[in-house]
Amino acid sequence: FAQLHAAVAGLPLASSRVLPGIVLRRDFAAYCPAEGDLRALLLTEPLRTPLPGPGVRFVVESEDQYRASQCWVSGRIEALMKHLQSNNVKLLLSSVKQEEVVIYYAKLHGVSVVECLSSEEIALVREITGVSPYAPFGDHIHREITETAVATFCQPLLLGSEKCVHVGFTSVSSFQPHCLILCGPVDGVNEQHAAALQGAFTMLQQLYKRVD
């Protein structure tokens, strides 16, 4: 219930509504409008991997070497974004903050990015879609992308003064998530309404629980 409701203070109760899909309490780091179904990747690590591998020290001895290394990193990020674009991946949902070079090339190739999602939000998306997080590419930039979720829509949503992301996923089970938007004059009223509704849902769960 905590991940499937959002409280908005300062609005009348009549503004409350139920929305299909889920609402992520984050703003887009990059937003590229897309029509129709789109593929989404879950990320729990930065897309830009460190230059040296484990146990290896990277030494830069001149400014030219530093510039060359940055160009090499940028080239790999751009190649990955082109690969994502060719596979119709239009959305990255990340639990970590991605570097500016990733955001830049995502915008350039029409890929939306949402960063800093909580572990609970990532777990909810995984439960709905059945996909696992995408592993960093390492030396295999062009390998086949299999762990993608299908989103039927992805768009900005303004809740009061807070910018959010509203996204709908094709579920792999009978679970079709909807998000409850609770509006009220102050936070205290919203908290009371949320507690009452959660209690009602818990009672209904118990009422309709299968009895052997």
UniProtKB/TrEMBL annotation:
Leader sequence segment: none
One GO process term, biological-process aspect: chaperone-mediated protein complex assembly
Matches recorded under InterPro entries: BBS10, GroEL-like_apical_dom_sf
Protein name: BBS10 protein
Provenance organism: Smutsornis africanus (Double-banded courser)
